[in-house]
Design a protein that fits this description.
The complex is a heterodimer.
Chain A lengths: L6 E5 L4 H13 L4 E4 L7 H6 L8 E4 L2 E4 L1 H11 L12 H28 L3 H26 L12 H7 L2 H11 L10 H12 L1 H6 L3 H23 L2
Parallel strand pairs in A: 1-2
Antiparallel strand pairs in A: 1-3, 3-4
Helix pairs in contact in A: 1-3, 1-6, 4-5, 4-6, 7-10
Chain B lengths: L6 E5 L4 H12 L5 E4 L7 H6 L8 E4 L2 E4 L1 H11 L12 H27 L3 H25 L13 H7 L2 H11 L10 H12 L1 H6 L3 H25 L1
Parallel strand pairs in B: 1-2
Antiparallel strand pairs in B: 1-3, 3-4
Helix pairs in contact in B: 1-3, 1-6, 4-5, 4-6, 7-10
The chains are: A alpha+beta, B alpha+beta.
InterPro entries (chain A): Glutathione-S-Trfase_C-like, Glutathione-S-Trfase_C_sf, Glutathione_S-Trfase, Glutathione_S-Trfase_N, GST_C, GST_C_Tau, Omega/Tau-like, Thioredoxin-like_sf
EC number (chain A): 2.5.1.18
Protein name (chain A): glutathione transferase
């Protein structure tokens, strides 16, 4: 691509959706300006770039905004098709499989159950969230077995869309283990995923994108305390 | 007709996600075996083809299973790239925009009208109707911005986003008949209202979209099912 490509990522360091975009940019070998947003005081640029959702991440490429993490990752793959490795396979059937599992990660592993277990106010809510997460993780183990075809990643020999989608959660998975003692990728129940997590975390592109676990632990603890305080306050009214 | 291999589609005629896929198949001029599913009594084939989610649509192409309506439409577009018009735009930015609004519609529009279907009180329904109207206002803006004064979201003829939004119209029509709500109003959303008329006139829509009577019948069936489940749950306690 001729000239300078101006790439700005509007993000928040703790957000796995933002991490996801950083991973994609890193795996493609693209340099970008990392703009940290204060989500309690969103910038004009963020609000005008994502007027519909007003959320991060937003990738601004040569002044044009692209929103929604999975859409951004596919955009990066398509707009920079000649640069770095392809994030999606070239075969249409394999692409469809990758798209399916990337959507599954967001629906079943990330958003619904696990966020619920982090935000849960009662023990019951938390355990229900975790139960659903574990069920989804078992399904993912099967997906990894099929997609990797004996290689190390969902993308086969190299990292792909699903690796990036799931990989964006790793600091949070590690933080969950530190806080609650629960390993989401149990090496006995889901050996392939446990090994995959090790392997993925060691990649330079991943190390550069994933937030530090200690920082995430602190952040999560603060959030939990805030949620607990809010719950207690509402109950004493 | 070009060799398309063996194509089977497991579907439900009133499902917007199935309608979307059938329109894509029609755009490409593909013939396929359509197998209507009874979702109250799921077939062996459906459960085997989609064990993870047990949902329709499911496309089976030469024995390969493709799931998730967005992934299926993109698969159709990619495999039969040489046949018929392009469903997704070529430019990566335009593709990202189309995907963004498709994701928005599947999330916000869909949940609003499902909410209207499921509402048990007038108040609940009113709430969901307001949500729906807010979404349609956003879409009106999106259409103004992205269509460049042309007839469809994609330009002179239908494309990915037209399919993504248009497939939901059958439910808006049915709910208008069932609850009297005016969703597409030439006063409030003139562009969208005019587009909806044009969409309904396309060959693909005429071929695939079921008539409103059928949609209403299905809505009643689902309502009865929900009531039965609720009654059973109440007596089981």
């Amino acid at each position: 691509m001729a000239g300078g490509d101006d790439l700005k990522l509007l993000g928040a360091w703790a957000s796995p959706f933002v991490t996801r975009v950083k991973l994609a940019l890193n795996f493609k070998g693209l340099s970008f300006e990392d703009v940290e947003e204060d989500l309690s005081n969103k910038s004009e640029l963020l609000l005008s770039s994502n007027p519909v959702h007003k959320k991060v991440p937003v990738l601004v490429h040569n002044g044009k905004p692209i929103c929604e993490s999975v859409i951004i990752v596919q955009y990066i793959d398509e707009a920079f098709a000649g640069i770095g490795p392809a994030l999606l396979p070239s075969d249409p059937y394999e692409r469809a499989i990758a798209r399916f599992w990337a959507a599954y990660v967001d629906d079943k592993v990330l958003v619904a159950p696990w966020v619920q277990s982090l935000r849960a106010k009662t023990e019951e809510e938390k355990s229900e969230g975790l139960k659903q997460t574990f069920a989804a993780v078992e399904t993912l183990e099967g997906a990894l077995r099929e997609c990797s075809k004996g290689e190390g990643y969902f993308g086969g020999e190299t990292v792909g869309l699903v690796d990036i989608s799931l990989g964006s959660l790793l600091s949070w998975l590690n933080a969950t283990e530190v806080i609650s003692g629960t390993k989401i990728f149990d090496p006995v129940k889901t050996p392939l995923l446990a090994a995959w997590m090790e392997r993925f975390s060691k990649l330079d592109a991943a190390k550069a994108a994933l937030p530090e676990v200690d920082r995430v632990v602190e952040f999560a603890k603060k959030r939990q305390a805030q949620a607990a305080a809010a719950a207690a306050a509402s109950e004493t009214k | 007709m070009a060799a398309e291999g063996d194509l089977k589609l497991l579907g439900l005629s009133v499902s917007p996600f199935v309608v979307r896929v059938r329109m894509a198949l029609h755009m490409k001029g593909l013939s396929y075996e359509y197998i209507e599913q009874d979702l109250f009594n799921k077939s062996e084939l459906l459960l085997k083809s989609n064990p993870v989610e047990k949902k329709v649509p499911v496309l089976i192409h030469d024995g390969k299973t493709i799931l998730d309506s967005s992934a299926i439409v993109q698969y159709i577009d990619e495999v039969w790239a040489a046949m018929g018009p392009s469903i997704l735009p070529v430019d990566p930015n335009e593709r990202a925009t189309a995907r963004f609004w498709a994701a928005y519609v599947d999330d916000k529009l869909f949940s609003a009208y499902v909410g209207i279907n499921k509402a048990t009180t007038e108040v609940e329904r009113e709430e969901k109707v307001s949500e729906m109207l807010a979404v349609l206002e956003q879409l009106e803006e999106a259409f103004a911005k992205n269509s460049n004064g042309k007839a469809f979201f994609a330009g002179d003829s239908i494309g990915y986003l037209d399919l993504a939004v248009g497939c939901h119209l059958l439910w808006l029509k049915a709910q208008h008949k069932m609850f009297g709500v005016v969703f597409l109003d030439a006063g409030k959303t003139p562009l969208l209202e005019a587009w909806a008329k044009r969409f309904a006139e396309t060959d693909a829509a005429k071929e695939v979209v079921p008539d409103t009577g059928m949609v209403m019948e299905y809505a009643k069936k689902r309502q009865a099912y929900r009531a039965a489940v609720a009654a059973a749950a109440a007596t089981a306690k």
